Queue: 4 jobs
Job 1
Amino acid sequence: MPDLQMVVCMKVVPKPEEVRVDPATRLLDRAHARSEINPPDMNALEFALELKDRYGGRVSILSMGPPFFEPYLRVGLATGADHIYLLSDRAFGGADTLATTYTLAQGIQKMGGADLVFCGEESSDGATGQVPSGLAEWLDIGQITLVSDVDIDLARSVARGRREIRGGYEIVEVPLPAVVSVKTASNEPRFMDYRLKPGASDEGRVTVWSKTDLQAAETYLGLPGSPTTVSELTQAPTGERKRELLTGTPQEIAQRLAELLRDLCPNVPETSRKS
Amino acid sequence: MVASLYSVAEEQKAIWIFLEQESGKLESVSLELLAKARQLADRVGWQLTGLLMGNSIAELAQEAIAYGADEIVLAEHPLLADFTVDAYCHVACEAIMCYKPSVFLLGVTPDGRDLAGRLAVRLRTGLNADCSDLRLTPESGILAGEVSGFGGGVLALIEMQNHRPQMATVRPGVFLAGQADFSRKGNVIRLPVNLTEAMINTRIIERVVGARTDLTQAPALVVGGRGVGDKFGMLRELADLIGGDIGATRPPVDEGYIERERQIGQTGVVCRPKVAIVCGASGAFHFVVGIQGADIVIAINSDPQAPIFDFADYCIVGDVFKVVPALIAALRATHEVSYA
């Protein structure tokens, strides 16, 4: 059997707490926000690297975005990934889920396919969590989403994952190739390996593909390929609260809170008020 | 531009909802969607249809009608007994291509997300995911979804002009479920199901669903952050005294001090209790969105600069381990007096 081919989809996102809306233009001001690899994607990479440790094979990082993503993604090389494929073209900009998943699928096909495609549960900026199953549909392969553990059975050519569902879990098997999305925080992403660090800056380990390289249908790409449009953008209201400071000893505060809770919660019994 | 499988000109003026069920019970998020969609449908004079898939679940059709549906499209088949994205997507796609609704809404649950993501690509349509509000314009029939990004700090209105169905997903707890009215009448249409084993790639080896926690329905919540460490027993005691439940911010969940389904916020559940008592949480934005719908927020934190105090009605700068036990004692005293 040829080497196990694994792809990890990763995204570089602005740190959520540093993004603001420019009140004048109503546009997102990302310029003053620092970037990072979308944290859930590090959990996805970790599972791929664990499978590589166990079975060998090759781990490729796949990302769609501007050239500035590259140095962030190289961190993945220093943790054990083999190669980076960056899909970068102005024509990819403004993509919603449909266009994003199409473009990523084209990238995977251009790479010659993969046995396993890993994704993080969701991105911290978009947070739609819809890429994994949309991608699986374009590739016409199976999926296991929200896994907290995953393994493969090479002899039977299946992936087996523990899928976290509300109030429990499922153990699910799908034939390879398959898309696997990883439940956030289900593993401890490893640190950079300093022995790998020098190689992480090798020129030859990053491949950048444009729309021409992908032979993608232009109508499916970027903003024109996206059914959804943003009609309005605003800073979220913070919600006006009273912000009343309660002071005193813990006992005095507790007394005051107990009275408040008695009015608010029907299940707290009435007390006979002492005068 | 990519065209969806059917056009605006072909659409049926109807709102469809994915009625998700687990072990013969409708998901709370489906009931919440029914209530919201009922309002939208009444405003524009459209029909509200529930798509119900499963095995031996026909009696749920009447329940969905009681909660607001005009019509149920019912697909029953042994291969729909447990959710697999292969089977559910196949059947949902056939149903939608048969009736061509203008709008299709789903709840954000593990299965709802799986289905939504695949179905939107199969139908070549847009997907407005994780909406915090929905608006439907009567003249144009355009659905706008309010979506928050960047941990809730930014709000966008997102819509699609030329693609159908207009798909959107909503998290549990965002909308309020209505009251069931079992005198409501509605049609139940049985959909012929063409499924074979060969069409299903997913094999469920084991499935364990235990007692499920539903914080969206809790009238009161006691929420622990990093500052309470693993002392959730103390919070449980307080919650029991006020007839509520306990939740957590992300750090205690990641530490394994409490179950993940009790995580509140953007990547957890969105709650709307009468009162939320937030203990030892700093007040990160992605957490705060989960309690924005609370009538009253009480915050206890030893750091006077903690952002949580900007999102609270009553602010207590103090030691959680002193204030909470004192509060438990005060509420106990109340009990004793009232039972005397």
Note: The mean pLDDT of chain B is 92.
Job 2
Amino acid sequence: MIGDILIGLGLLFVVIGTIGIVRFRDVYSRLQASGVSDNAGLGLILIGLIVRHGLSSDDLRLGLLFFLLLLTNPIITHSIAKSAFVRKYGGRGDGRT
Amino acid sequence: MIAVECILLVSLLAVLYRLFRGPHPWDRLLAYNAASNRMFVLLALIAVIDGRHSYLDATIVYAALSFLGVIILARFMERGGGHR
């Protein structure tokens, strides 16, 4: 029950983030949509899977996966944003949709 | 739970649209990162729901390797690689 609610909430975040990635105008806006909502949504789906299936041997691996997601996604977002900024990508108005 | 997998698959396809169309290289890199994130959560869903427990190990290896690839590509474009 609680696991299903968590998975549904995570799916809501993932759908919002996908709309943001497809529809926003430049790289930094898309980075913001991707970085915030993917981290929350996919993490909530993994926690929902842990909660939903009770105590089993999969929990440790799913927890490791959640930890890996939570550790690497901000690093990737920061690295892409720094790469676009160092190469003097302008932002608004520079993007051709 | 089939519905959850279908929604994640549709979201994966919508992100792949940005991967193929994105005007700048950073758009493609960001879309690749988002697509691989969705891909490994989809693999974890299949592993837990269908009871294929060996898929989870492959999922962990896939997540670590995709992180390494995206970081290396971002540093490469920062140092002046790519076509711009």
Note: Chain B touches chain A through 41 residues (CB under 8 Å).
Job 3
Amino acid sequence: MSAGLLAVAMIADAVLGEPPVVWGRVPHPAVLMGRAIDLLDQRLNKGPTRRMMGVAAVAALVAGAGALGLALHLIPDAGLIEAAVVAVLLAQKSLVDHVRAVATGLRQSLKDGRQAVAMIVGRDTATMKEPDVARAAIESAAENLSDGVIAPIFWYLLFGLPGILIYKVVNTADSMIGHRTPKYEAFGWAAARLDDVLNLVPARLTAILIAVTHGHLDTGPILRDAPLHRSPNAGWPEAAMAVVLNVALSGPRSYHGEKKDFPWVWKEGRRDPGPAEVDAACRALWRSWAGILAVVLLLWWA
Amino acid sequence: MRIDSRAADHGGGIDAAAARYGGVRGDWLDLSTGINRVPYPVVRLTAAAWRDLPDAGAIQALEVAARLFWNIPDKAAIFAAPGASSLIARIPDMVPAGKVAIPGPTYNEHARAFRACGWQVVDDTPAARVVVHPNNPDGRLWTLTDCQSDLMIIDESFGDVVPDQSLIAASVRPGTLVLKSLGKFWGLAGARLGFAIGDPELIAALRQMLGPWPVSGPALALGQAALSDPAWAVRTRRRLARDAQRLDRMMTDAGVRLSGGTDLFRLYDTANAAGVQDDLAQHQIWTRTFPYSDRWLRLGLPGPRAEWDRLAVALAARRGI
């Protein structure tokens, strides 16, 4: 791994995002990962030992991603492929674009806002009011800053191309098979647990990054509220985002028609966020991105 | 700062904007009106259209085309005038002054004309009422039950983007006039051509007031061609609907909220309408703010591609990209 190469990849991702021109022609790595996970799901998600099968599936994915990363790393091309792969696996620009689309949608109509937010969250959007839509977008911004940007950077810095590929394949597997449903409770167990472990440090780093880049050096409120969140990791970036934007996040909501009474994160924040707060979340994403880029450049220089 | 009272009360006013922000008239992109910027193509005019006094046949041909285009009931009379605004100015003079209700905010020439003729503009009265349908600037639509006053003026100047919403059926009611315009949807504001449709007695009075040959020969020819071309109207409605959505996307992306409008103009809500107007004016793009609201900003739709590009550049500069 090289911090200089990472900086180049970060900037390429920030400028280019995910050009549809390219992904119309070749399958996106996330799509390839999804196909591999799908295949394992079909072959292995059966029988009495589903949990063991899930462990085996994750082991196969990790081994495959690690080997692929190592192989790509060893190609003598002055790091061109490596930089391209890292740029593709980072999702800063596309994250900001998707979150911004929610603010833009909300300014047109509630219906447009719901449509835009349905692209980034898995919740029922049909009954959402404007503050629900804005909140969902801000939460998604915080969580995906950790999953889609900071964690991949973290694992790349530690273990190079194998590190970032393994992280991405586990994170993708978690999103596909990590649900607590009858079908996936056992088979998805390994993916969900490993994803929790891999995000343990990055999620907390993301919270620190958001807080520090916004001059919030008093971490008290974040430490207080992050554990209130239903997810052991996502609570951290969300709590930090809630505090710096002064918006109450999480809270009561409905999943698949079922009301869930989650506690508020940063309950002191405003309960009626709108498009302006979603825009503020986008600015916070860029600020955090600039912060991590500065760290990467420092590492390169040091 | 008010540029001058006249410019602040209407769209347009490019000369005043140019005087304030620089540039000459031709440099400016005028989005301060609801005039279609891709107008009906001007037809070839014969020498006779300019030379001769418009004869009864030419006027009748135009009125027949109008009747067909707008599905005007046979019982309603029709009268072609030099622009809907000439009708608006004279209507209050047809009947003795009294009280008139003009639900607003709306196009302010109606109230001005009624007041100038000694009328009192009130919130509600069964005696006389004016509705702008769809309303300018918020796009509000009215229904036949809203149109039952003794003197009832229904201004459908912007109505041709929503033909299925037309209240032309009310034109058979005594005391009712529906106004139509070739200026907005057909983009022919310069031709000055509008219609009053409705109560034959009121129409006769208007005809009397405006004298013989109120409409020029070229305007008659142009109007007849435009109203005999339903295919152009269908195409244009489709394009305007698409372009209105495009403008909404650009404007909401730049931080203002959609508040209403029609497919000819869009109304946006923002904390600082004057600030957005000022920013766009720095790029020689003129928009409409309202003396009664510091939050409302109205934009007409850009027409040719280059105009869209100009607006995109101005909005990007505003966002600091």
Note: The CA atoms of residues 244 and 263 of chain B lie 5 Å apart.
Job 4
Amino acid sequence: MKVLVVDDEQDMQTLFLQRFRKEIRDGKVDFVFAISGEQALEYMKENDHEAILILSDINMPGMSGLELLEKIKQKYVAPPPVVMMITAYGDAENYNTAIKLGADDFLTKPVDFALLKEKLKL
Amino acid sequence: MRNCIKILFFLLVPFGLNAQVDSLRKLLVHSPDGEMQHNLCRDIYNFYEEQNRDSALLYAEKKIAIARKCGKRVPEAYSRISKAYQLTGLGRLGEAYRSLLDAFAIIDDPKLPQKEDWQLSVAPFKGDVRKLLRSYAHHISGILMLRTENIQQQIFHFSEAGRIGTEINYAPRQMLAYMNLGLVYLSINKLDSVLYYENLSQQIAYQSGFKKFLGIVKFTIGDVYKAKGDDATALAYYHQGVQWGKEENNLNAWNRAYMRLFRHYFAAGNGDSALYYAVNNLRLIHEMGQISGTETNLGVAYEYLSKGYQLKHQFDSAFKYQGMALTIKDSLNRIRIRSLSDLQNLSFGEQLRLQNLEKERSMYQNKVRTYALLSGIVVFVLVAVILYRNNRQKHKTNKVLESTLSNLRSTQSQLVQSEKMASLGELTAGIAHEIQNPLNFVNNFSEVNTELLTEMKDELNKGNIDDAKAIADNVIGNEQKINYHGKRADAIVKGMLQHSRQSNGVKELTDINALTDEYLRLAYHGLRAKDKSFNAAMKTDFDKSVGSINIISQDIGRVVLNLITNAFYAVADKKKKGIDGYEPTITVSTKKNDGKIIITVKDNGMGIPQHVKEKIFQPFFTTKPTGEGTGLGLSMSYDIITKGHGGELTVTTQEEEYAEFTIVLPI
């Protein structure tokens, strides 16, 4: 399973790699990282439908996670990748907007990796 | 019918004047109509006016009676003035004066109609009849005054007559007024004035065709030349006077011209001529009526006759006429004196009456004044009451307003407080969320480290030193991350505290230019300490008139520092892009404008895109790479300027060109 993680914080990559080091070692999951929405779109364009799961932050410089979500859901109609939003701002407004724009799930920071693993069925 | 009369009139003219008057008389007997009777009497009066005073007086009285019967006030007044004129000519000055007073009473009556369809005199008149009457009445008053030798009164009345006559543009009144003014000036020997007025009168007479009195004008001009010693010219004018008197049936003029001719020939010693004029003078005076003006009377006629006979050496005749002259003159003098005293009594009585009138008027005026005052007081009281009521109402309203205002004020302060709380709440929420990011790392890396350390222990137990070392490196790296994000959380909390703390700073007089300069240096050195390669041009434009104002200098200093740091960051960012010929420049300026202090910080960096500009003052909004900024700098600055100092913080920008932040502080 290929997962695209979009977050402007570089340390997020280290964290994911360490948190999923066993699953990666076992070949159950493969991570790709992008530090901005723009970069994420670029990657998706180059590797069509490779990633089936996208985990995106919302608050990022430049394109926000919500904008990215909107673009992905408009562009990749059949079958659209699963998009999960991960944000520090777990307020109702953000949540509702994300769901309205077609987010498949909504997680808040600090990320509960046990829960995430459960959701990814790993 | 009227036309018939006119035709008759014109037909009759050639047959002789007296025949014409006779036929008018006959018509009068048969005329049933008031206006027609009046018109017939008017024409007969006009015929006799300067020919026979007794007859003229009779018809003037008839006209008055007709006018009164018909309720015609204007013709009545007019005829009363005519009557006064004839009475004056007859030397009955008291009666003349009374008739004039009656006329003036009618003229002054406010109910007098302004228009009159009955024709009053020789020429028709369409203007303001009241003015016509007033002019005529003043004129006859002047003539009456000629008998009293009161020069001032004469000039006054004739001037008034002339002035009003000019106002209504009625030639006969103008002509006669100027003619008599000339006569008045002749009596006081002001020859230039005489010539001026007589020439004016003569001119009007020729222009208007009203020549009835032209004879008088002519001999008066003759008098001027006589007085100047020009006998030839004087004689010519005297003869013209005779000629016009004859032509216009003005026996008065004719006779007075004769008197002048007598005096001339008598003085020249020409007995025949003198006697001729003296005899004819007497004849004309007989024709006109027993008594005429002061100048022309029977006494004078007898005197001249006596003188004429003397010159002819017919002494018995001379003596006879001298005796007659004395007797007549004596009686005339007595009549005159009686008449004058009559006039005096009358005018005394009139004065009394006028005084009483004046008294009444002043009493009336006092009454009016009292009433006006009373009504004024009433109005004043009313106004006062209304004002008082208004005032009370205002007072009430004011009280309501005051309480509303104080309510509003407390509401406002509550609002401010709640906004502060809201802002703090917002901030707290923001902080709470923002802090989740570093916490995410702290929590997860510490958990990972626990796992890693457990794994490392396993490896060590297995004796895999290298693997254990590798894991230890990871743990160290993670620990550093934990530390870093812990500090980051600390910075966020500190920023929040700074943002939300109650400003206990005291406002003090601060030199704005010095403050700005100080923080500019601070920012520059701070940046150079981090990045030695950094350099930028700094331009300052300080307005010396800015001076010192009351501010919390630490807070304003923080804002200035923040803006300048941002500016340096912006130019450094643009420099990194390696644009050719780009010179990073920061301009800081101060200005005093319209009672406000303006501080601007401008950089020639990349500018701010519109969508960013909208959020720039929101807390936690930042364009800096994650971790480099808290996103609190500008929002805090905004609060300090607007809430802390009642000023404004605004930004203008052009993408890829510049960004300019402006602080406006009230003095």
Note: Strands of chain A lie at 2-6, 30-34, 53-57, 82-87, 105-108.
